[in-house]
Design a protein that fits this description.
2 domains, alpha/beta, six-stranded parallel β-sheet, single chain, Rossmann fold, seven-stranded mixed β-sheet
């Protein structure tokens, strides 16, 4: 089978890998669509991110959906031909954090396409993938494979909402409107946000943010004073989802959060400085959010029931043979939101 393998920064190859057979409790999924994630782009462009670096060739990808092509022994509730979204979250369910119900913090997590451990956890960008049956979530009739492949990044934002607490009747700021920021808008709207304002520095991205549910968009590169106006009377927003990883976005957001507001950090970046006195004086809570686990099933259910519409975020689908072009397109924010590969 063909797989998409990263060897080093800008060294992406399509390679033949040996297909495996499903064991007891497992199924084989013929992958139909895979979305290129920000972490995939970090491996492609920089060979890693932060202290996490590629040390051996690794199959990329973790946002996938496909069709069950084989069943292992003792599998029930699934059949050959079922279309499924595949959760890449594979915790051990035995460590101290798993036993506390914090599977996303698992000490032995086997999350697809991760260079954190050595040997690396091979990813899901391959034509055939062996998965545990419990990783599979059926796709409803009428929902495309491409929509189903959004379940993973959508689950990321649902976990962020979980970390934020109730959004009912809340005013929400989303900074950074790439795929994750866009899905934060979708998730916040589904969870009862009263008003959503989105910021970025790219007008085409902001137009997409408005299309998917933002009440107002602000280009902070050209309209920074517009956002600053929300800082009157100690702030306006109850919750901020920071999806850019940019220090200036964090600092600007702290200025416009109300006292006792919540800042949920999704975007990855380097070390930054923050106005500590402002955080103290306004009693702001800063919360990290990392991956997801139980939210994946909810993501699939909301997509299946058409409670949310992720289709406007898909801006390109490339064949497997054009994987390099797909990654280059995904890295161009002026023309791409979510780019997927057809396997």
């Amino acid at each position: 089978m063909k797989s998409i393998v990263i060897h080093a920064a800008k060294d992406l190859r399509i390679e033949e890998r040996e297909a495996e057979a499903p064991g007891p409790g497992q199924v084989e999924v013929a992958i139909g669509a895979g979305g290129i994630c920000g972490s995939d782009l970090h491996y492609y462009n920089h060979g890693g991110f932060g202290t996490i670096r590629l040390r051996e060739p690794m199959i990329l990808g973790h946002e996938v959906a496909g069709t069950i092509s084989k069943l292992g022994e003792s599998v029930s509730g699934l059949a050959v031909g079922d279309r499924v979204a595949v959760s890449p979250s594979r915790p051990c369910n035995a460590c101290r954090y798993c036993l506390l119900g914090q599977q996303n913090q698992c000490l032995s997590m086997r999350f697809y396409g991760s260079a954190m451990p050595m040997p690396h956890i091979q990813g899901a960008f391959r034509q055939r993938l062996i998965v545990e049956a419990w990783q599979c979530h059926k796709i409803a009739d009428g929902v495309s494979i491409n929509e189903a492949a959004f379940a993973e990044p959508f689950a990321v934002t649902l976990h962020a909402v979980n970390r934020a607490g109730s959004l009912l009747d809340k005013r929400v700021l989303v900074t950074g409107c790439g795929p994750i920021g866009g899905l934060c808008i979708v998730a916040a709207r589904a969870h009862g946000a009263r008003e959503i304002v989105a910021t970025d520095v790219v007008d085409t991205v902001l137009a997409k943010a408005q299309e998917i549910g933002a009440d107002r968009t602000i280009n902070v590169g050209t309209q920074g004073k517009t956002l600053s106006s929300y800082g009157a009377d100690k702030g306006y927003f109850d919750v901020m989802f920071e999806a850019s990883g940019n220090e200036s976005a964090v600092r600007a957001g702290l200025e416009v959060l109300k006292p006792r507001g919540v800042l949920v950090q999704l975007g990855l970046g380097g070390d930054i400085s923050i106005p500590q006195n402002l955080v103290v004086a306004k009693e702001i809570e800063m919360r990290g959010t990392f991956r997801f686990h139980e939210e994946f099933g909810l993501a699939v259910d909301l997509i299946n029931r058409r409670r949310v519409d992720v289709r406007p975020l898909l801006t390109g689908v490339f064949p497997l043979e054009e994987a390099v072009a797909a990654f280059d397109a995904a890295g161009d924010r002026s023309r791409s939101m979510k780019v997927q590969i057809a396997f």
